[in-house]
Amino acid sequence: MGEIENDRSNLKDEKMVQITLKAIGPSPPSRLTVPSRLKVYDLRKLIAGNDRLPLENLRLILRGNVLLDNKNGDDVFIQLNDGGLHLIFDSLSS
């Protein structure tokens, strides 16, 4: 479903998938089409731009875990599959 991995390789998988986004709060879920494999940071940028949210205050939660942009100095990539994946996002106040 949503597998997180560390990798320094270039993005070569151009397959696109649809994910469901749910904001913490009263707003309804939305869907977003994204590459199946991308950096967590890039996913946060896409969501922030799509929903006009401040990137620095946006965190993503997948299966109860906050997705980090990097780990041990390496970019964190996430592999997404079509359907069945729900990302929760929270726009923290400063």
Structure write-up:
- The protein starts with a strand and ends with a strand.
- The strands form two sheets. A five-stranded mixed sheet has the order 3-2-9-5-6, with helices on one face.
- The N terminus is likely disordered.
- The chain is mainly beta and 94 residues long.
- Strand 2 and strand 3 form a beta hairpin.
- It has one domain: Roll (Ubiquitin-like (UB roll)).
- Helices cover 13% and strands 48% of the residues.
Sequence-ordered SSE layout with sheet pairings:
Blueprint: E1 2-6, E2 16-23, E3 30-35, E4 37-39, H1 40-51, E5 58-62, E6 65-67, E7 70-71, E8 74-80, E9 86-91
Parallel strand pairs: 2-9
Antiparallel strand pairs: 1-8, 2-3, 4-8, 5-6, 5-9, 7-8
Task: Please give the share of residues in helix.
Answer: 10-25%
CATH arch. level architecture: Roll
| SS-derived structural category | mainly beta
Going by CATH, the homologous superfamily would be Phosphatidylinositol 3-kinase Catalytic Subunit, Chain A, domain 1
Helix/strand order, N-terminal first = EEEEHEEEEE
CATH class: Alpha Beta
Query: Biggest β-sheet: count, sense, barrel?
Result: 5 strands, mixed
* Model regions low in confidence, pLDDT < 50 over at least 5 residues: 1-11
Name the beta content range.
Answer: over 45%
Rounded average pLDDT: 77
Classify the fold: give the CATH topology: Ubiquitin-like (UB roll)
Overall geometry = globular
Tell me the radius of gyration: 13 Å
CA distance, first residue to last residue = 32 Å
Side by side, the strands of the main sheet go 3-2-9-5-6
Q: Quickly count the helices.
A: 1
Number of strands: 9
Number of domains: 1
